[in-house]
């Protein structure tokens, strides 16, 4: 997952589709190992397009962390952790006053 995702995402035309597939399909997979691999893969893709992760992926995951589906909730929380780690490693801040910050406080 991690190596293939990086190789595919190296091509700009495939970058957002692979990110979206990981976050919409694989983070909710029935197998916990697949969810973990998907989350780790997402974290590895953050350096390729950090603003997309900050402005699109992060708010989406924050909106889905309270899902009724336990498997999806688990995958989304893993994804959140990996995306936040990736953003922090690049020193990409979440803007003060952004809705993501208050939602993030609820998760933590």
The secondary-structure element order is: HHHHHH
Instruction: Please tell me the overall pLDDT.
Output: 89
Number of strands: 0
Oligomer: single chain
> For the report, how would you describe the main beta sheet?
none
pLDDT < 50 runs, ≥5 residues: none
Rg estimate, integer Å: 13 Å
SS strand fraction = under 5%
| Distance separating the two termini | 28 Å
Broad structural category: mainly alpha
Summed up, the helix count is: 6
- Determine the fraction of residues in helical runs and give it as a percent range: over 70%
The outline comes out as globular
Question: Helices, strands, pairings?
Answer:
Layout: H1 2-9, H2 12-24, H3 32-45, H4 50-64, H5 70-89, H6 99-107
Helix pairs in contact: 1-3, 3-5, 4-5, 4-6
Structure write-up:
- It is a single chain.
- With 108 residues, the protein is an all-alpha fold.
- 73% of the residues lie in helices and 0% in strands.
- The protein has six helices and no strands.
- Helix 1 packs parallel to helix 3 and helix 3 packs parallel to helix 5.
- It is globular and about 35 Å long.
- The chain starts with a helix and ends with a helix.
Overview in brief:
With 108 residues, this protein is mostly helical. The chain has six helices and no strands. It starts with a helix and ends with a helix.
């Amino acid at each position: 997952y991690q190596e293939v995702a990086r190789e595919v995402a190296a091509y700009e035309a495939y970058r957002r589709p692979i990110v979206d597939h990981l976050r919409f399909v694989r983070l909710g997979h029935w197998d916990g190992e697949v969810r973990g691999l998907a989350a780790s893969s997402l974290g590895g893709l953050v350096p390729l397009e950090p603003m997309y992760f900050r402005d699109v992926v992060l708010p989406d995951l924050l909106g889905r962390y309270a899902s009724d589906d336990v498997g999806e909730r688990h995958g989304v929380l893993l994804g959140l952790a990996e995306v936040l780690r990736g953003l922090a490693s690049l020193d990409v801040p979440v803007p003060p006053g952004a809705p993501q910050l208050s939602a993030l406080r609820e998760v933590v």
